[in-house]
Amino acid sequence: MQPSADTAMHLKKPLSSSGLKDSSREADPQAQASATAVEELVNSLNKQRLYREVTLAIRTSIRDARAEFSFLRFRGLRSLLNFLRSVSQYDSKINLFCQTQSIPELQVVPVLFRHSLKDSEDDKVESLNHILGVEPMKITGPSTGAEVALALRVLEGCCLLHSERTLLAHQHKAIEILLHILSTRGASELGSCLDALISIMLDSSSNQMVKMWGVLAATHRPC
């Protein structure tokens, strides 16, 4: 059975394909612009969410790292170290961490030297007058070996992820403090201290000069 002429005409040319192509081409720029705008919005929201997560993690950990009691500081340092380990796996998070370290209240390195890596002699009480007076002296628990070792690991991570932290460490006399830790602390802090010492000297001429002068002073002591 042969199809009629009208049927054959509809089978040969059901729709104008060229017309569809032309209309799709006209719609493409607008669709692409809309898709680009949506993608930019999603990326912006993701960056804001990630920034809030990073700042919240640092702020919470620093709060504990400033505590008066060693076990609270240890908890904060452990959180900071876990955070740095997770950050090191993603370039985007590393960049965000570096950005946060320009904000004074979120800077990690000063907290380490003011609380966990400071000499316990700084808190030595000469008399009971401060304790029994109207304004009692704030006494901070001394740093344990585990706390010092953990703080050194956090210092190492900060300097490796953000090289500018070595300059901030230099401002807190990091070389002198770490050398003092090497000479006074036990074996549990030795490995962490050596790794931290290497990390703060990488690409840091100021810290390298301090180390060199320290070695020269040690080798040229008067008899």
What's the helix and strand layout?
Elements: H1 5-12, H2 17-65, H3 70-87, H4 91-100, H5 109-116, H6 129-132, H7 145-161, H8 165-171, H9 174-184, H10 187-201, H11 205-219
Helix pairs in contact: 2-3, 2-4, 3-7, 7-10, 9-10
Structure overview:
Residues 1-33 are annotated as: Disordered. By secondary structure, the protein is mainly alpha-helical. It has a single domain, classed as Leucine-rich Repeat Variant. Helices cover 73% and strands 0% of the residues. It has helices at residues 5-12, 17-65, 70-87, 91-100, 109-116, 129-132, 145-161, 165-171, 174-184, 187-201, 205-219. Helix 2 (17-65) packs antiparallel against helix 3, helix 3 (70-87) packs parallel to helix 7 and helix 7 packs parallel to helix 10. The longest helix has 49 residues, at 17-65. The radius of gyration is 31 Å and the shape is elongated. The N and C termini lie far apart (122 Å). Mean pLDDT is 79; it is low at 7-25 and 212-223.
